[in-house]
Amino acid sequence: MNKDILLQFFKANSEKAFVEMDLVEQMNIPKEDIPLMFTYLEEMVVDAKLIKTKKGKFALPEFFQIYVGKIQMTAKGFGFAIIESVEMKDVFVPSSALFGAMNGDKVMLKLTKMGGPDKKSEGEVIKIVERSNTVIVGTYEESKNFGFVVPDDQRIRSDIFISRNNALGAKQGDKVVVEISKWPEDRRNPEGKITEILGQVGEPGVDILSIIRTYKLPEVFNTKVLQEAENIPIEVEENEIKKREDFRDYKVVTIDGKDAKDLDDAVHVIKLPNGNYELGVHIADVTYYVKEHSKIDKEALRRATSVYLLNRVIPMLPERLSNGICSLNPQLNRLTMSCVMEIDSNGDIVNHKICESVIKTVERMNYDDVSDIVEGKISHELKEKYGDLFGEFETMKELSLILKKRRNRRGAIDFDFAESKIQLDGEGKPIFVGKLERRIGHKIIEEFMLAANETVAEHMFWLELPFVYRIHEIPNEEKIEALNKFLHNFGKKVKGSAEDLHPKAIQQMLTEVKGSPEEHVISKLTLRSLKQARYSPNNDGHFGLAAKYYCHFTSPIRRYPDLQIHRIIRDLLQGRLNGDRIKALRAIVDEVSLQSSEKERTAELAERDVDDMKKAEYMMDHIGEHFTGLISTITSFGMFIELENTIEGLVRMENLDDDYYVYDEEHMQLIGERTKNVYKLGQTVEVEVIKADATLRQVDFDLV
Known about the structure:
Number of strands: 33
Radius of gyration: 28 Å
Distance between the termini: 68 Å
């Protein structure tokens, strides 16, 4: 007896409500489990999984036409409920019907107006199930006898009232962290107390620290975790080396960014006598040092990922491990988990082995140096330092191109977006924003890691053991239909059935638009039409990679799923996977998948906010300057323009003063009523920077 079994029963009988004894009878609940069932029912009511009537009947919320979801607020004061309990479109909630709900709150709501094919339903909040914003970051504004905190998050519309006793000595303009003590009701503002003063707005580092606090990112490790890390040896023990496959005589190298300190993957490539290639992917053996249920392990799962905020890293593991004994630093013995593959000239993996190993890398290479070598841009310095490895790098390039061709043949989707490169000075001020160049050095490592991840996932799948897969599900039919509606404007289409879509159909469409003015916009909209990849204990394949089997095996220093699957592989290799262990692992992989997916989303949002903030700050020094950009999005309130340097800004509708423009949603364009002037996606325009606000992370343009 558990809550899942109860929930499945209610879903199978969703058109009925039940009293407790009906459930006992119909579900054949043993007498000893009845008190537990009663407890579970009450807990499920608290969690909004069920509703209990005054007459003591239980049913799913939908039985009473009540829905459970999360409120997503807008800066204008109204919100949308993202329904979680059933498959349905988002519900519009006007500001008057929020019942004091704030952004991110889990709520119950009932519908007040039914929507149509092109119109959202409308609803009102009837109960707040769970508050999201218990802690808020904002700017303190002082009054004579009290103060207010103005939240950084524009979607939190109410300022927070702070009494003099709860101000912690904050001054006007301080960036602070405030804990909510009283929620908003009857037009009254929420109340709170300041728990931390981060510093004055504008002081170096305060801006990024604000985002760290907003997303509740754990900045420091507690003393117990650090003490445990101190007890881990800083050198590899000789008796452990003897137990492992030894690759120390191979020409193994790491290839990373110039500034990387946590080196968790190394590779070797050999051309075999039969014409095939041997690819060895050697990954830091973190789980040898991080034992299950240790303090370091529990903290690593809590964090689940390292977070990279430009000039600050919030690591998953303490530095002593991530930059020390676990990092595959050059010319040092290091313990690894290796996946060694034999690959033929078609890119097919014809043989493989996964083993515990030891390596000693011959060089710590970076992407630029490797790219220069294989592109023939060889300086005297490169020849002096790495001349004896030139042959290895040529073989790596050869193999990576073979693997890339194989992925293309099966239909893998490759979005060729330029990532942003943002450089900060010593004070944290942005001094450069532009495109990050992805060269052949990056692509070699990418192909090798993909090959290892697929090989390990398939190996474990056929053993039918508990595992953490990286999955990317088939897109929703509605999203593909909407994409095709948009593509029709350009005479393009994703071919095939939306309900049984193959990635090759998207790949072919993207190939057709390559080099066209609208390529960038179509690629972006196509990406938005796909689901987000996530972690799962079930192997549901990876749509974007056109892969039947996929996992994350290659980064255990910075991703917990990789660490967890290393632990499972070690258990397998050492013969420890008995019935009890397999049963325990089933529960573990469920928890790891859910936790890691959630923390990955949080990290992505924090990283994006920092990037957007620094881009806006950079543009504050370019007010009045002119730039060329592409129209990337068109809305009813204006159009977003993306510049060559990856910065995006808004041309507001009210600033289009040469005509009255009408938003044509079907064709995603703006049409001048008098002049018939048209602005459409992908169009090149000249703009002037008229405003930039780092706190709001917004840039405003005007057309020139």
